[in-house]
Amino acid sequence: MNSTFTASFLDVEVDDIQFLFSIAYATIVCGLFFHVRFFQFFNVRSFTLTMTMLNIVILYIMSLTNNIQLLIVLRFIQGPLVLFEGCILLPVIMSLIKGENARLISFSFLYAFMLTGDKFGTTLVKFAIENYTHHMIYYAIIAYHIVTLLIFIFIFNQNRLFTKKPLYQLNLGGIFLMVICLVSGAYFLIYGKQFYWFESPKITLAFALNLVAGALFLWREITSKRPLFHFEIFKSKRVVVGIILFFFFYILRSSMSNIYQVMSQVWRWPWEYVLKIQYFNVAGSFIGVFSAYLLMKNKVNYKIIFFIGFALLSATMLYFSHIFLPDTRVEVVVYGLIMQGLGQGLLFCPLVFFMTGSVHPSISGSASQGGTAIRFWTNTIGFSIMQNIILHLTTKHQFLMTKNLDLTHPIFQKEWDELYHKFDVSHLTNDSMQLAVGTLKSKLYQQALLVSNIEIFRSLFVLALILALVVLIYPSIRSKLRFLN
Fold it and tell me: Do 401 and 444 meet the contact criterion of CB atoms below 8 Å apart?
């Protein structure tokens, strides 16, 4: 679930929610640098049981505290543990599926749940909040882990998927630098608006740490005999093009937070209701991923797949720009959610395969790491861009609308009289004035938010349309799935 919507029903600051998400994702990015080494050191049964039990311990500690600093530390530890617990299952599934499309089937399932899993998780959170305390959220997740633990005990044996290798030379220094770079960068982008950017020493320090740690990581990797990340992947045009397309894909995807913000603040839909509506987006995503699987299985040109995907996202942006009205029917929004799900489902898996299939298998992991890092940065940058653009545009439109508040204007007079008399029946004169002014300000903000989103989504429509046309024109996007032959 996006951070804007999650913050609205948990009654916490959206920046804090996004930062917790970013911390976990930053540690997942760093975990990708050495997760294969763990796979090679442990057998499957020992590895899955250890990581699941560690996750249970972390979740239990989380249930005992409300201290935000401790939660950040625990979230920091939880990120790679979640990666290790789930990532080993992908090669296990691939080893069980027979046939030339085993890799494609496995990754299609993985990315389908990556696109939609947050909705299922938030439904669990909703049930816990409605019926129990917030601690029940953790207990419910722990219960799922215990069930998973029992399944692992009964189905896995001591066999290995990889040849055993000792756990040494992990290049922890490089991983430490990457953690500092990602976390400080996330802090800068997320909290910059709140602390007025470089007017705050904390934001300035975070920006400096991001640059210094990033530069040291680059220098270390370029000069290392055993680098964590192979920069040779950038010699492939497909990797570079794939990273650029991924960047814009997530910028377009980040706009969905604006939809949920309007649902909450303008249309006043209950968050329980919004949760149910989002399953239309889930359905669209599943259909999109399955459609992408069929197209890739039949070796359809990437150019066609990418064009259809970005064209669908372009149509979605244009569609949403026409439904930002003071009151909108649910079925109207549903069509847009389904289209957006179709577009993102069609693009996600092909983009990953487009990148990783263009480099030598020995360094394909670096292509995956690059894509995951781009996902982290684009999620964070997209959040920052949307938050700052919304703030700028709503402030601008509110100011312009306020200038038109003229007591001599008949429309304003009518609106004011209706509001004042509504409160004058049950309140004193001064209270009625204050309530009428407050209601008027709220209506102005809602109108400014709607107009701002119309501008944003029309701009995103143009961006997605340009991407779809560039995909058709650019010659490097023409390869088929040669590695599946």
Answer: yes
| Integer Rg of the chain from CA | 25
Residue-number span of the structural domain to which 323 is assigned: 236-485
pLDDT in tens, 421-477: 666 656 656 666 667 666 677 777 788 888 889 999 999 999 999 999 988 887 666
User: Amino acid letter at 69?
Assistant: Q
Contact 3, 52 (CB under 8 A): no
Burial class of residue 64 in the structure, from the number of CB atoms within 10 Å of its CB (0-12 exposed, 13-18 middle, 19+ buried): exposed
* HSE (side-chain half, CA atoms, 13 Å) at 141: 23
Residues listed for the chain? 485
Identify the residue whose tokens are 């894909």. Answer: 249
Do 190 and 206 touch, CB atoms closer than 8 A?
Answer: no
**Residue at 6 is within a domain:** no
Axis crossing angle, helix 330-356 with helix 271-297, rounded to the nearest 10: 40
Asked whether residue 158 falls in the same domain as residue 240, the answer is no
Q: How far apart, in whole angstroms, are the C-alpha atoms of residue 317 and residue 256?
A: 10
Whole-Å CA distances, 399 to 284, 394, 408, 440, 448: 39, 8, 19, 13, 9
> Residue 164 half-sphere exposure, CB side, CA atoms within 13 Å?
9
Residues 423-461 as b/e (b if ≥16 CB within 10 A, e otherwise) read: bbeeeeeeebeebbeeebeeebbbbbbbbbbbebbeebb
Q: Are residues 255 and 357 in the same domain?
A: yes
Is 193 domain-assigned? no
Cα–Cα nearest to 346, from 313, 379, 369: 313
Indicate the range of 66-70, 397-401, 426-430 predicted with least confidence: 426-430
Q: Domain count of the chain? A: 2
Does residue 258 sit within a domain?
A: yes
Summarize the chain as % helix, strand, coil (round to 5). Answer: 80, 0, 20
pLDDT tens per residue, range 197-225: 888 899 999 999 999 998 998 888 788 77
pLDDT in tens, 142-163: 888 888 888 888 887 777 666 6
What pTM did the predictor assign? 0.80
CB 433 within 8 A of CB 421: no
252 and 346 housed in the same domain? yes
The whole-angstrom separation of Cα 277 and Cα 274 is 5
- Report whether 27 contacts 80 (CB < 8 A): yes
Q: Is residue 477 part of a domain?
A: yes
pLDDT at 49 over 50: yes
Largest CA distance in the chain: 83
Residue 420 has pLDDT above 70, yes or no: no
Q: Which amino acid is at 475?
A: P
Q: How far apart are the first and last CA of the chain?
A: 37
The answer to whether the CB of 281 falls within 8 A of the CB of 336 is: no
Query: Cα-flanking dihedrals φ and ψ of residue 427, to 5°?
Result: -135, 165
The last residue of a domain, from among 142, 163, 184: 163
